Fold Hsp90 chaperone protein kinase-targeting subunit.
Amino acid sequence: GDSICRAAVPAVAPLQFSPGHFSRPLMPGFDYSKWDNIELSDDEEVHPNIDKDSWVRMRHKDRVEREEDENNKRRELGERLAKVGDELKVFGEAGKGHLKAKKLQEEADRLNAELETMDKNRKWNADNMCQTASDKVAVSGPGADVGPEPRLKGEAAAAGYCEFVEEHEDLLEQYIALGSGELEQVRNFLMLHGGVLLQGEHAETYLLLDCLEKEMNDEHEDMLLAARQSQLLTQVREYSRATGRPARDGVPTMFGRLIEHEGTQEAFQESLNTFIRRIEKRAPEKRREMDAEAAEEEEEVGPGGLDPREVFDTLPKAMQEAFLAKDVARLHQIVESMPADEAKHHMIRCEESGLWVPDGREGAPPYRQ
């Protein structure tokens, strides 16, 4: 055992000693803690009635299988960690406050911790004790380069929206309330709270939906004020992408131009007017869609408020077949053969969903008595 790693690691003492017994200084950058968990199957003592060669072969096989399982798990963790790192890079430094980025960083920290625990508890032997390469992937944050707020799409843009609104709705409403205020007030507010409002798509989404809801509810003047706030936020983030800088860094410059330059004011007003026209066009369309959906939902339930499809799916197969065949006589036979409580349960649900309409001329049906 003494000669296994001596050539590769000159400072390592014989295997029977722990790191604390080293008489020479430890080599910087080399992880000596692994020597704490050395196992050598050929050094094991066995009972005289046990064949040592067979025992060693069995232990070696067990060790190989265990190491294979550990290596597979380590590889899976490493691959997932690399994927998380790639996803984090999309957000950049400016997007590290985004809820999705925070969750990815938490996952990266957890994966790294799990890999560290595996390394710490790993058993070493003659086959692997000179292999010091690490499977870990360093993920210390969403990129070191300071850049603009990313333009997210699909699931990345939608992820965490409800949580964002729940946490920051008061702040969003305060920002919207500045719609009738001076631009200097909006600028100062974004300088103070831009870390929340300017990171991620959620604030923009909230303001867009707020404008749409106000217009649908005939609150046109309030919509106009909210629309200005929405477009100011959007323009700051667009300016961030154009300059390649974090959004909050662009607030003073963009608002300075908007306050002082007539050309910038005209361009912003044109953009705002376009946005308002889209809201005005979309609001009645959305209202019609919602009314149609509500009417469709009302049609889908029976007189007792139950969905006929859901009720049908819960019926015994024989009852389903009778309904599909429209065989009322067969349905009566099936119901009469059931225990009274079960028959009552199914028939009441059929009636309340509209699947079954009792003959009112005969009085209350038996299951209602």
